[in-house]
Amino acid sequence: MEEGDRRVLYFQSNPQSQMASAASDRGGLEYTTYVHLVRALAEQLRHVLVLGLGGGSLPKEFLADYPEVRV
């Protein structure tokens, strides 16, 4: 659903994923910011495996911020 400047994917009545309409790699739900914690665990990260996709918020944000990493 389009909600203002956001596009939201719902499962039944619960938001599962969202993105900014103007920038699909931004504006996700709060949990997407946790993708950056991986840098604290692996500074020389080269590959990431994402299991499950939903709206694709995690891989989109990760690729935007770390283009050198293969997702």
Task: Provide structural commentary.
With 71 residues, this protein is α+β, with helices and mostly antiparallel strands. The protein is 18% helix and 21% strand. It has helices spanning 38-41, 57-65; strands at 2-3, 6-11, 14-20. The chain has a three-stranded antiparallel β-sheet, with no helix packed on it. The longest helix is centred in the C-terminal third of the chain and has 9 residues, at 57-65. The radius of gyration is 13 Å and the shape is elongated. The mean pLDDT is 85.
* Strands, count: 3
Low-confidence stretches: none
Helix percent band? 10-25%
> Helical region count?
2
Q: Describe the main β-sheet briefly.
A: 3 strands, antiparallel
Determine Rg (CA atoms, Å).
13 Å
Oligomer: single chain
Tell me, rounded to a whole number, the average pLDDT. Answer: 85
> Per DSSP, what share of the residues sits in E-state strands of 2 or more residues?
15-25%
Task: Set down the secondary structure blueprint.
Layout: E1 2-3, E2 6-11, E3 14-20, H1 38-41, H2 57-65
Antiparallel strand pairs: 1-2, 2-3
